[in-house]
Structure to design on (314 residues):
């Protein structure tokens, strides 16, 4: 694994090679600034596989550097770990919103960094199953019902603000301390009959639906406090610290209103109906070892319950 560590502190930069001295992670490069890091990326024939970015740097901080790296061809899904002394919820939230996959607090724990790099390495090996969808990624032969991704696949939708990888959202939730947990609410927004839509739409049409849902979420929920991921099967998991979060039924109504104004899919003769179910918000699970799994499962089940309730009332 080829690693680029970026930090304006020369002592920290000298420390990085020794962190991995007793591992096989020896291909470690360093840069003193964001601009130097971008120059190093451009100069490399063999791309970097992983990044360690200090958040607090002059001229270009790690947040901005992370955003710029994510725009470079081939670096859309490379693991990025943020390093900083700031552990407040706003700083952590901004790091993940910029495209980071993990967040490590200073002072640095050498063993912890090595372990987190290994997790990042596994993410890199599995990156082929994580798709970042943009306009140029839509297959030319875009027939309805035929896709180069599965209905349940966790896609990363390009150009959707505040949407991050499922893996990254799980890391974010894990980082929150008990005080921040009490301020957070997690909920699921699910496209009703998403598998039916998947089978009746082209890739471009299905991805447009997902993109519109993600965009609508950023308009209904205050973006500075929203993070979300697409969990597959038409479901978006969302977490927010917004103290003025609307009631779940108001969220559902507002989202539906935005989708009702989109162009119809399927033609004027038989347009496909697109409706949403919003599960009631829940607090993240307090148990750190089971927090992600149990929180995600509960949020997804609430959306399924909401859809079942609507069907029963119909």
């Amino acid at each position: 694994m080829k690693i680029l560590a970026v930090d304006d502190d020369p002592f920290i930069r000298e420390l990085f090679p020794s962190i991995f001295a007793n591992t096989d992670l020896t291909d470690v490069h360093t840069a003193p600034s964001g601009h130097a890091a971008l120059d190093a990326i451009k100069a490399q024939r063999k791309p970097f596989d992983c990044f360690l970015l200090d958040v607090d740097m002059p001229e270009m901080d790690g947040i901005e550097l992370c955003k710029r790296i994510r725009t470079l061809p081939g670096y859309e899904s490379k693991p990025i770990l943020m390093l900083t002394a700031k552990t407040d919820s706003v700083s952590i939230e901004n790091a993940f919103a910029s495209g980071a996959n993990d967040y490590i607090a200073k002072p640095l724990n050498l063993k912890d960094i090595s372990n987190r790099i290994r997790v990042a390495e596994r993410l890199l090996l599995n990156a082929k199953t994580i798709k970042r969808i943009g306009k140029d990624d839509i297959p030319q032969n875009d027939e309805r019902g035929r896709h180069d991704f599965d209905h349940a696949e966790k896609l990363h939708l390009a150009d959707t603000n505040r949407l991050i990888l499922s893996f990254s959202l799980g890391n974010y939730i894990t980082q929150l301390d008990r005080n921040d947990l009490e301020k957070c609410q997690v909920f699921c927004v699910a496209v009703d009959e998403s598998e039916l839509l998947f089978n009746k739409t082209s890739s471009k049409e299905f991805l447009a639906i997902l993109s519109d849902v993600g965009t609508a979420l950023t308009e209904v929920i205050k973006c500075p406090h929203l993070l979300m991921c697409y969990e597959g099967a038409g479901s978006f998991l969302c977490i927010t610290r917004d103290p003025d979060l609307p009631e779940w039924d108001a969220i559902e109504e507002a989202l539906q209103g935005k989708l009702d104004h989109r162009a119809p899919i399927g033609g004027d003769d038989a347009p496909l109906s697109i409706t949403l179910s919003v599960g009631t918000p829940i607090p993240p699970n307090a148990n750190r070892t089971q927090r992600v799994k149990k929180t995600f499962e509960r949020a997804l089940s609430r959306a399924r319950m909401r859809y079942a309730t609507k069907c029963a009332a119909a």
In short: The radius of gyration is 21 Å. The longest strand covers residues 185-191. The chain has two domains: 2-128, 130-313.
